[in-house]
Amino acid sequence: MNEINDIFAPVTVPDNSLYLLVFFILLFFILLFALFYFYKKRVQKNKRDEKYYLNILLHSNFYNVKQSAYLFTYYGRKLAKTQEQKKELEHIISQLFLYKYQQKPLQIPQKLHKEIEKFLGRLREFYA
């Protein structure tokens, strides 16, 4: 009968291979935990920022109409998430466009002010 000879010599396994395996598994889990932690922290920061932006818009008094129009445009775009909110926001921004570039401070019409208040109320419910 023919005998099969090995082509390569048998590989010796070092004595510390079990420790290396456990080390790499622990390192993998630590890295996975760190990634999850930083992702979670970033999501919570975004939620904190959204509440901060909403607070700015809710406490905007519209006495300085020009600055309030810019604030509403900037923070409104950061807060509007759904298509309905974006559509309503763009409608309000198009009406506020007139007030951004005026030299004299103008008064916002009562109708537009009510639309803004209604939009902010919906945002408050959305982020509550």
Beta-strand content: under 5%
**Would you count the extended β strands for me?**
0
Order of helices and strands: HHHH
- Enumerate the spans where pLDDT stays under 50 for 5 or more consecutive residues: none
Structure described in brief:
By secondary structure, the chain is an all-alpha fold. Helix content is 73%, strand content 0%.
Structural summary, described in words:
The chain is an all-alpha fold. 73% of the residues lie in helices and 0% in strands. It has 4 helices and no strands. α1 (17-58) runs antiparallel to α2 and α3 (83-100) packs antiparallel against α4 (110-127). The longest helix is centred in the N-terminal third of the chain and has 42 residues, at 17-58. It is rod-shaped, with a radius of gyration of 30 Å. It starts with 16 loop residues before the first helix and ends with a helix. The model has no long low-confidence stretch (mean pLDDT 85).
